[in-house]
Cell wall hydrolase
Amino acid sequence: MTRIKYIQSDVELLARLIRTEAEAEGQRGMLSVGAVVINRALVKCSDFKNVDTIREVIYQYHGSDASFDAIQSPSFYQRATEPYLKLARQCLQNWRLYPAVYSLWYFNPSGAGVQNTQCPPKWYGQPYAGVWKNHCFYEPTGAECAEIYKI
């Protein structure tokens, strides 16, 4: 069973994003980033009311800021290879695990490659859900996005 309808170009796009955003975080880190992308495409709340597809989520901007720094990296535009395509398919086919089960946001507060991540208890007003290696994950409150807890 899949979590969301998708086409082959979505698999390739998601594979490139998870590689560029979280390759240093290992497979579980890349899968967690992919789960956040899928979560954003499935909900109609918060900053994600007007995005419905993987492509729209990945290329979403908030003012002049890209939602994902990866799209500004030259490595994002390199062809996706099979190991990353496999991870993208896992995300699309219902992979979710703590801390990304209900998360809509993540970030690396220390910068790339820095260990001993200190995650703030809230980020943009949303509560901390957990950490995986260098990425802090945040899920919305029920008041902000109750539907995330139903998907």
Observations:
- The first helix runs from residue 8 to 22.
- The chain has a mean pLDDT of 93.
